Amino acid sequence: MRIETLTDAGRDEIHDGALRLLEEVGLKVPPAPRLRERLIDGGLPPDGEHLRIPRAAVAKALKTAPRRIQLSARSAERNITLDGARTFVTTDGCGASTLDIDSGERRRSVLADVAASARLADALGGFDVYWTMVSAHDVPPPVRVAREFLAALQNTTKHVQVIDVARREEAVSLVAMARAITDSGAAGEAPVSMLISVVSPLRLDPAGTEAALTFAGAGLPVVACSMPIAGVTAPATAPGAVLLAHAEILGFVTILQTLHPGAPVIYCSFPAFAHARTGVTNYDDPRYVWAAGAAARMGRSMNLPCFTSNELTALWSGTDLITGGGLLEISTLLSYEQLVIDNERIADLSRAAADQPLNADTLALDIIRDVGPGGHFLAQVHTARHVREFSIPRFGGREASAADRREPGAPPDARERARREARRLLESHAVPPLPDQLETALERIAETPARTASA
Predict the structure, then answer these.
(1) Whose CA is closest to 47, among 22, 10, 75?
(2) Are 220 and 173 contacting, i.e. CB atoms less than 8 angstroms apart?
(3) For every residue of the chain, which 3-state class applies, written as one string?
(4) CA separation for the pair 420, 113 (Å, rounded)
(5) Is residue 276 within 8 Å of residue 47, measured between CB atoms?
(6) The predicted structure's pLDDT at residue 403
(7) How far apart are alpha carbons 241 and 282 in whole angstroms?
(8) How many CA atoms lie within 13 A of 23 on its CB side?
(9) What's the pTM value of the predicted model, to 2 decimals?
(10) What is the pLDDT of residue 284?
(11) Do the beta carbons of residue 422 and residue 339 sit within 8 Å?
(12) Rounded to an integer, what distance in angstroms lies between the CA atom of residue 242 and that of residue 238?
């Protein structure tokens, strides 16, 4: 099943508008001598603080960027290939707080939460990639990113994607760790990837760009992301937000491909909307569905691996990656029970988006004929066989919502059942340990302050 929100003409109009924007306005490059020198050497000289990018440079970049990318995992059967054949799901990420699984109280997230959320995501079948879900506030900032990656790696055999790399030095440490993992044979060539966002509207983060270039130079995948908010950091229309995101991503892809041709890069568009009264990000705006579908169409039409939001729309659109949950309050608060709930929700959404086979058994013409007018299908063997395919939610859905309103003393509600399931999995799920020699090497790299790490 595939649903498109854009016609070919609409796609071409947005793409042409983005190219005009890059040529006429470009991306702002704040003072950053090292980055400016690299851009000049690569043939993309900034004009003052503006990097105007010719459409010919964009076209060349899109030709050198690979369509097929593999994200390696500690377990070879959990390697994933982004080639348009299916959609994979990441956890949500970059939260700052955690709902304690025992007390239910909000607290600052710590390294143990990175480890526990990675282990829980490893146990849940709905997630294919682990994003670093929260920041470890108990780890010194110079080594925080490396320590978070190691904690995740120790607790999941799935691919780890880091989304809080903010400096080149942090990327250097992760590249060194990736090399150690690959050289040991514990995973393939890309055991870690990173996500970096352009700052909407049209502004590069020099430190983050340097980090992305470090990854690209090492052949590690970079997710080139834009997260404009319509009405705040983007025009207050869905097409305008999609166009701005498209321009920002193409500009970033062009930088990566110009300086490192052939580097693996993923198109990632997350347009959202501001709440009309409060200004906070509002994923309930009805236009969000259209924007997500349009973003998916734009990404796929660039012949790049595509990563978008709004799970059902992304599944219908055939994107390569979607982000699937575990965080509350606009992706700031880790909830272990929510990760369990969203795992069930993702499974249901995948079924909702799947093609339904049409054959004699599913069309059931003979069964309808046998039952006839005014009958029922409860006693049919066909019903007994297919009712096994029906969804019975354990942790969500309308039935569970009704159960949540039971009187005190009633059986556990859906959220409490999810909390108990999360606790059970955290206590019982075992992840194979890293080889001793590799773990020692990774600990050494992670403990070295990022500013002194060497590539």
Answers:
(1) 22
(2) no
(3) CCCCCCCHHHHHHHHHHHHHHHHHCCEECCCCHHHHHHHHHCCCCCECCEECCCHHHHHHHHHHCCCCEEECCCCHHHCEEECCCCCEEECCCCECEEECCCCCCEEECCHHHHHHHHHHHHHCCCCCEEECCECCCCCCHHHHHHHHHHHHHHHCCCEEEECCCCCHHHHHHHHHHHHHHHHHCCCCCCCEEEEEEEECCCECCHHHHHHHHHHHHCCCCEEEEECCEECCCECCCHHHHHHHHHHHHHHHHHHHHHHCCCCCEEEEECCEEECCCCCCECCCCCHHHHHHHHHHHHHHHCCCCEEECCHHHHHHHCCCEEECCCEECCCCEEEHHHHHHHHHHHHHHHHHHCCCCCCHHHHCHHHHHHHCCCCCCCCCHHHHHHHHHCCCCCCCHHHHHHHCCCCCCCCCCHHHHHHHHHHHHHHHCCCCCCCHHHHHHHHHHHHCCHHHCCC
(4) 17
(5) no
(6) 45
(7) 14
(8) 12
(9) 0.92
(10) 86
(11) yes
(12) 6
Q: From residue 221, how far is each of 119, 252, 258 by CA, in Å?
A: 23, 14, 15
Query: Per the structure block, which two tokens stand in for 388?
Result: 């096994």
Token pair, residue 27, equals 């991306």
Q: Which residue has the higher pLDDT, 352 or 46?
A: 46
Of the candidates 203, 288, 283, the residue with the CA atom closest to the CA atom of residue 247: 203
- Angle (deg, nearest 10), helices 436-447 and 141-155: 160
User: How far is residue 252's CA from residue 238's CA, in Å, rounded to a whole number?
Assistant: 21
Checking if the pLDDT of 453 tops 90, the result is no
Task: Read off the tokens for 365.
Answer: 């013409």
- Reply yes or no on whether the pLDDT at 455 is more than 50: no
How far apart CA 169 and CA 423 sit, in angstroms, is 36
Q: How many whole angstroms separate alpha carbon 43 and alpha carbon 261? A: 13
Give the type of residue at 221. Answer: P
Q: How far apart are CA 412 and CA 278, in angstroms?
A: 35
Q: Say if residue 45 is preceded by a cis peptide, omega within 30 of 0.
A: no
By the 8 A CB rule, do 49 and 39 touch?
no
Across 280-306, average pLDDT: 92
Q: Which residue has the tokens 């760790």?
A: 177
Closest CA to 87 of 326, 338, 298, 306: 306
